[in-house]
Design brief:
Helices cover about 50% and strands about 10% of the residues. The chain has about 200 residues and is mainly α.
C-alpha cells in the first residue's frame, strides 16, 4: 500500500508564502486523492506491493491500457507530491550547503543562476506540470520540466528527482491567482535545502 507523505508542520506553517487553505486543499484533498486512487488501481493491476519508482519506471509492463494510464497519472501525482511536500519547511530558504551546493555551482555557475534556470522552466511549462532538479548515480545534475503528472522517472530519463516546483494551478491559485511567477519566486523562501541535500546523497549511494 502506498502511503501519502505526512506533513511534519501545521497547514499554516508555510505562511505567508503558502497559505493554510492551499496546503489543506493541495495536500489534504488533491494529494490524498492521488494516493487513494493509486492504491485502488495498483491493487487491480497486481502491483500494490511494488516500489513507486519501480512502478513508474516500468509502466509498459502494465498490459491494461486504462490501468496503465491511470497509474501513470495517479502514481505520478503521488510520487511528485511526496517529493514536493517533503522538500518544503517553515525553516527553509537560503541556499544549499555541502556537496549539493558545490555541484550546483559547478553545473550552473551559481545558485542564483540555478534558480533562474529552474524558474524559467517552471514558468515556461504550458498548462499544468512540474520543473525538476534531478541527479544520476554519479552526482551530475539535470534540469527539466514535464507536463501533467509525468516526471523524470516515468519519462525514462534514468535520473532521480531531488527537488521539484509544482506549477499545477491548485498549488498556488488560491493565493497568487494567475501570478505564477510570483509563486515561483516566493517558493524558494520555504525550500528545505537540507532535505534536498539528503535526497541528493541518497540518490548517489
Amino acid at each position: 500500500m502506498f502511503e501519502q507523505y505526512k506533513l511534519p508542520y501545521e497547514s499554516h506553517a508555510l505562511e505567508p508564502v503558502i497559505d493554510a487553505l492551499t496546503v489543506e486543499t493541495h495536500h489534504g484533498k488533491h494529494h490524498a486523492a492521488y494516493t487513494a486512487t493509486l492504491n485502488t488501481l495498483a491493487e487491480k493491476a497486481g502491483a500494490a506491493d511494488k516500489d513507486i519508482v519501480d512502478l513508474l519506471a516500468n509502466l509498459d509492463d502494465i498490459a491494461d491500457e486504462t490501468l496503465r494510464v491511470g497509474i501513470r497519472n495517479n502514481g505520478g501525482g503521488f510520487y511528485n507530491h511526496n517529493l514536493y511536500f517533503s522538500t518544503l519547511s517553515p525553516n527553509g530558504g537560503g541556499e544549499p550547503k555541502g556537496g549539493l551546493k558545490a555541484k550546483i555551482d559547478e553545473t550552473f555557475g551559481s545558485f542564483d543562476a540555478f534558480k533562474e534556470q529552474i524558474s524559467a522552466l517552471a514558468l515556461g511549462q504550458f498548462g499544468s506540470g512540474w520543473a525538476w532538479l534531478s541527479t544520476d548515480q554519479e552526482g551530475n545534475l539535470y534540469l527539466s520540466k514535464s507536463a501533467n503528472q509525468d516526471n523524470p522517472i516515468s519519462l525514462k530519463t534514468g535520473h532521480t528527482p531531488i527537488f521539484t516546483i509544482d506549477v499545477w494551478e491548485h498549488a498556488y491559485y488560491l493565493k497568487y491567482k494567475n501570478l505564477r511567477a510570483k509563486y515561483v519566486e516566493e517558493l524558494f523562501q520555504v525550500v528545505d535545502w537540507d532535505a534536498v541535500e539528503k535526497k541528493y546523497q541518497e540518490a548517489k549511494a
